[in-house]
Design a protein that fits this description.
Residues 81-181 are annotated as: Disordered. The chain is of the alpha+beta class. The chain has helices spanning 3-19, 24-70, 83-174, 180-201, 218-224, 231-238, and strands spanning 71-73, 80-82, 242-245, 248-251, 267-272, 275-284, 288-299, 302-312. A hairpin with a 2-residue loop joins β5 (267-272) and β6 (275-284).
Length: 313
């Protein structure tokens, strides 16, 4: 310890001796309080130790008490049996006694269930058979109805066919027959009708739409075609194609009317001994689907096209 520390210590001791004085009562009071404090600390430590011991030993004592309650003394010395084991054995014996009864009840329930299932299956089978029979009856009725409808339809078709055949037969019987000679005359006139345009164009001057001096006016063309068709038909076909000018007659280029197609189907109807009607339906790029009609008549002992018409279909 340094001299400075010793010096300080002496000074403090002098100060305490000089200024602080304890009486005998004060000293005894201080000692008494000190002892009381030590006693309180001792009691607290003892209580804490007892609590700790109780917490540690308590579960063990509890288990021993439970075990003592479970065990019971048997008449034989030093032999014990757990009450819970006895109860378990008694319960097993009761279960064994109840098992036959329960098995009998279960068997009876199973038999009743089997009988009930058999009855339900029988009912379902009968219902299914009834439905099948009903469905078969319905199918039979439907087939019968379809057969009747087919039979009725066939009868109607046969009747319609017979009516058509009868109508056709009556028509054939009522219509006058056409001889081969008459048919040949009619076809010849239709061929002339087709070639009439060639007859007219043949009178054009080379590389020009002007006609030669043989055709000066429109009437000259109508006259030239008089042996093939009547004047009215010639005018109907050629009037709009011709133009009369001061220096002569000119052709106006345009599409013509459809002609007769001998290679395709047509029909000839004899209207009288001097008049026949020819009809034909055809398809062409220029006209589309169309129908053409010719009337071939014997006028003044000369066969001509007396009428011509055509229309789109």
């Amino acid at each position: 310890m340094s001299e400075f520390d010793n010096h300080i210590k002496k000074e403090i001791q002098k100060y305490l001796n000089k200024n602080i004085h304890f009486t005998t009562n004060d000293e005894q009071e201080i000692l008494r309080k000190k002892k009381k404090k030590q006693y309180s600390l001792y009691v607290s430590s003892l209580v804490f130790a007892l609590i700790l011991v109780f917490l540690l030993i308590g579960p063990v004592l509890k288990d021993e008490v439970i075990d003592n309650k479970i065990y019971e003394f048997s008449p034989a010395p030093f032999s014990t049996k757990m009450q819970s084991s006895k109860k378990l054995i008694e319960r097993e014996d009761n279960m064994k006694e109840k098992e036959p009864k329960q098995n009998a009840v279960d068997k009876e329930v199973a038999e009743n269930k089997d009988e009930s299932d058999e009855k339900e299956n029988a009912i379902e089978t009968n219902d299914q058979k009834d439905q099948e029979n009903q469905s078969a009856d319905q199918n039979g009725n439907k087939e019968h109805q379809e057969d009747q409808e087919k039979q009725s339809t066939n009868q109607t078709d046969n009747k319609h066919q017979k009516d058509q055949e009868s109508e056709s037969t009556d028509k054939e019987q009522n219509e006058p027959s056409i001889s081969d000679k008459e048919k040949e005359v009619i076809l010849h006139k239709l061929r002339q009708f087709n070639s009439s345009i060639d007859v007219v164009i043949a009178e054009l001057e080379p590389e020009s739409y002007k006609f030669k001096n043989t055709f000066v006016v429109k009437e000259d063309v109508y006259t030239r075609l008089n042996n093939m068709m009547t004047r009215n038909v010639a005018e109907q076909i050629w009037s709009n194609r011709l133009e009369e000018k001061s220096d002569g007659l000119y052709l106006i280029p345009m599409d013509g009317e459809p002609d007769f197609r001998e290679g395709e189907e047509y029909s000839i109807t004899k209207l009288s001994s001097t008049k026949f009607k020819v009809t034909q339906t055809a398809v062409a790029d220029l006209y589309g689907h169309y129908k053409v009609l010719f009337i071939v008549s014997n006028i003044d002992n000369q066969w001509k096209i007396s009428d011509y018409k055509w229309s789109s279909l």
